Amino acid sequence: MADFRGETRTILEGLVASPETALRDLAEKHLAADCVFDVAFPINRVEGREAVLERVVLPLRRALRHTRRRDEIFIGARNRRAEHGQWVASITHYLGNFEEALCGIRPSGRLAFLRSGEFYRVEEGKIVEAKIIFDFIDLMRQAGCFPLPDELGTEMLFPGPATHDGVLPANRESGEGSLDVVEGMLGDLHAFDPATFSSDRQTGDEGYWHEDMLWFGPGGIGSNYRWDGFVKDHREPFLKAFPDREGGNHYCRIGDGDYAAVSGWPSMTMTHRGDYLGVPATNKALSLRVMDFYRCAQGKVMENWVLLDYLDLFDQMGVDLLARAN
């Protein structure tokens, strides 16, 4: 029986690397005519195969000359959420020479790695639905036009898993257990002590996170090491700014091998109560599109890769980061 994960990965590689003369035949064969792609701001919703090519695929190929995918995680399973269906999820970088503007971001003329988190629903060999968060803020950083005043953690290229087995993992029977660990952690993470920003059962011998946890965050937040680093570089600033945040509104949760992935569009709702990344509190009600990818081992979360649509979040605050970068 064919592995729908590998077949879908081949389709996605072809969309960016095949000759442009063959692109529409490839899309007709592997994208549903009425497919719907929800993409990070400013692209947002794209409906129909032809629109996906014109608004997503071709601009990417032309901006990053000789585009290639470089997958770090690529997993797939049946969705545990109400929508069910077969889904794949990936952390990838689109690499190429950044020679034409992309969504208003001026090109650097040099090699760039555009980080992307992606979820695809697949039916009968065709992609019918997609959610994609391109990390445009990190692309701006690489192009020398970073639009934020501060970097909370370490800005870096997302590394692959320490075990180097995140692409089409073999031990698929472990996926349900990996997702169980993640769901338990998320359930307890919601409530927190406002003085210490701690939550029950996150750390320690009975905690969900390994003491050497690595948290890889998107442009504007950056990456960090161990729970203390996670709190300092992400959790504390975020919760001070959005203390009433509610999360977990996920359309998809899957587990595959030692990996799990969850995403909401949006996942979080919250009120902007404190300063955040240079933006004073607006007291506006906001929502946040989120993707999380996890590697688990021995009942613990070892690594977490996170994509957040911060261009959309800041737009809701009334801040145009694309204009600020140009």
From TrEMBL:
PANTHER family: ESTER CYCLASE, POLYKETIDE CYCLASE SNOAL-LIKE DOMAIN. It comes from Pararhizobium mangrovi. This is Ester cyclase. GO terms for biological process: polyketide metabolic process. It comes from the Bacteria.
